[in-house]
Amino acid sequence: MKKSLSIISVILIAGCNSSKKDDLSSLLKQEAELKKQLSEVEAKIKSLKKDTINPILISVIELKPEIFKSYLTFQGKVDADDNVAISSEMPGTITKIHVKVGDNVKAGQVLAETDSRTIQQSIQALQSNLEFVNELYEKQKKLWEQKIGTEVQYLQVKSQKENLEKTLASLQEQLRMTKIISPIDGTVDAVDIKLGQMVAPGMPAIRVINFNHLKVKADVPENYMSQIHQGNNVKIFFPDIQDSLITKLTYVSRTINPITRTFNVEVYLGNNSKLHPNQVAILSINNYTSEKPVISVPINYIQTDVNQEKFVYVVENNKVKKVYVKIGKQSADKVEILSGLEPNSKLIKTTVSLQEGTPVIIQDNSIL
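Predicted structure:
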């Protein structure tokens, strides 16, 4: 009996173990099937989310080929070709001032005078003496022509006369030097002297400017020497008066300043009543012009990836598309596109990263 019970127990235990193994295998199969179904559901959800991305509002520029020009910008100043600070040629005290600021003067006109009484008195005394010597000389000359008297007497009087004439000429030159005279036609821009003031050579007294010969000057770093030439187009902006003009470079120096390592450029302006010497001027010099129309875009819309490659965003089929481009010359605000973009492409006006394929709504469309 005991032996029979043991056999039955072993049979029951074995049956239970077999049943458990079957149940575990079934559960594992169910788990695998549920994981597969869950993965499919997640993929469908992801696909649905991708298809339902909300569109973004953008502005675009429709690109049109055009002649591209690049400019180099430098700060300069207005100057006058004839801008003279006149000083007295000899020390003295100012006794007369004949002009005031704003007066128009001619070359050779006396602007002011210093005390010349001592020189004038010397001239008067010398002239009286010279008159007497001239009479003596004429008489001695006639006697000598008639072979009366000696040659020595004639030569002595002649030498005395010539010496007095030279002395008189020297005094007259000194008298001229007591006058401050304008060397040019122009307008009195400054009077820096007063009556009774002591002046000396080299001390600025009166400034005269010829406003008919104004120009703009600027110093340009030497590394731009090969790009800037006489005759280049130039835009000049005067920030003080908010005015500008377009002209050409009149002069480009071929000498490099050894201290500043710059060279000088000039633009002749002629007469312009709006401008004043030393006024600030911003020169934008045209250093490159494309041979044919090309596509160009605002430089701030050019982006760079991790590989330092340039790209922009455009609209294609109403979605965002990333386009890599090759750039050429740059101006202050635009860059030449050598390849990558086609005419009529719609450039997205953005400086931030966008996701490719994102649907878009265009709010405005400008042509560039």
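Summary: Residues 1-8, 10-14 have pLDDT under 50 and may be disordered.
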